[in-house]
Amino acid sequence: MGTVVFDPDEAEKLGRDERKPVILVRVETSPDDVHGVLHSKGVLTARGGATSHAAVVTRGLGIPCVAGCEDIQVDYDAAEFRVGDKVVRRGDGLSIDGGTGEVFAGSIRTIEPDFDREVDLQNLLAWADEVRSLQVWANADYPRDAVRARKFGAQGIGLDRTEHMFMETDRLPIVHEMILAAPEYRKVKRQRETVVKQIEAATNDRRRDLEGQLAEIDSRLEDLSRRYIGSLEHLGRMQREDFVGILREMAGLPVIIRLIDPPLHEFLPRYETLLVHVTKLRIAREDPDAFIRAATSEEDRALIVEVRKAGSDVATGIDALLPRKERLLEAVKGSRETNPMLGLRGCRLGIMFPEITEMQVRAIFEAACRLKKEGVDVRPEIMIPLVGLPEELRIERHALEKEAKSVMDREGISVDYKFGTMIEIPRAALVADAIARHAEFFSFGTNDLTQTTMGYSRDDAEPKFLLDYVEQGILPRNPFQTIDRDGVGQLMRMCVQKGRKVRRDLEIGICGEHGGDPASIEFCHAIGLNYVSCSPFRVPVARLAAAHAKLRQEAARAKDA
Length: 561
Description:
The chain is α/β, with parallel strands linked by helices. The chain is 55% helix and 13% strand. It has an eight-stranded parallel β-barrel with strand order 10-11-12-13-14-15-16-17, surrounded by five helices. It has a six-stranded mixed beta sheet with strand order 4-3-2-1-8-9, covered by helices on one side. The model has no long low-confidence stretch (mean pLDDT 92).
């Protein structure tokens, strides 16, 4: 329960700074909204489903969420939403039940559960642990998630999504600067490589002209390097502290750290929002006072706050803010893709912009070396996402292991680690034997593997047709909640067999939302996975389900004997 807010910035301010319970209401959430979600008591969205961004993030944080409530009509400008004749405005009380999907007008008093006091449950889970052979790990992005994971009995971290660390409010401006400079840095760097080759083959007269070009290129590259490499170094220091925190909390247990996965545009404001801001700021430059008087919507007021922060008065604020917004708009325009989830992301991002993933690996090993010097037992495992070609993994691993070795040599410390990949597109499962030659572990990203195998968008399918398919019996279950054994499951089974044929000790787990679903856990046990990884809050359920899976398997074998 809490008061309704529509702006993630306001949710952060009220929830963190003023300690007020808020319910964040959005049409749908994106990585831009994570800072607001973190400080909300609940999230309500008009679009999405059980594995949408809002549902995945809130499940990991233990925050109630009702996603895909299509009956609500959200109006950001009016700061209200409607359900038929009922209007709920900013500041009104609201209660939601993430288990049933119910939404209640007004504030209903709730009681926080206390896991530590549930003695009978603790005993039951201890018995389950004695029976099960499948390990239960947890997905955790922050040290506080790792604390919860250990409290609930997790035996490792199966997914640390490093991109969530980029979404902190104080980091976004640095991330923006990095993204703005990255494409130009890459372009100019390639130009330099071309000119250097031309100089090596040129005659004396031609060489002098080329050397002049090289001097100009070097000057541009120096400026871009200050912006791009400087931003990465700043982010690297921040990420290093993040990794210190999570590795310390999980001392003695494995921590799988996934390198940056989403396309870069996800860290930028929405194109439509930027276009409106740029247009309004251009108009406001002609008459700043009229701009202030005309501001009536929440969005306009938020823009005015940005203007005031940017300058000593409104006019200078507009002059300072407008060029930055224009640069962001151009960056978003240049990075827009027709199908971004199958575009420049995952390992492709690391290959095209290697400095980003090198920074992350450097931060991981600096953190690991520091902790090992303190006597902490650290076990980092670095996961390269979205691999479909063995050569992608070979190139990435080779470059990143050089970075890891460089840090360990500099620190005079040796850290035990593993490199592996996420299996989330069908081709990776089909060529798992070739990929296993370059990987020490596989982790099934079943959210994306389900999308790419079935051709369903997880954000669009549930509200549009998927629930009807289940109701009509076209599908036995929602494949984003329970593994589709006949399709996705067969790819997983094949991947396990092919991978272990090449590398017998290949560690294989699952880190998608299915890792907390009892029916999916039973399937994971049957095909021989080492572990399942789920939200910290689902770890107790997974521990019990893993024991049930083992008992059912043994009962079936006894019956057949």
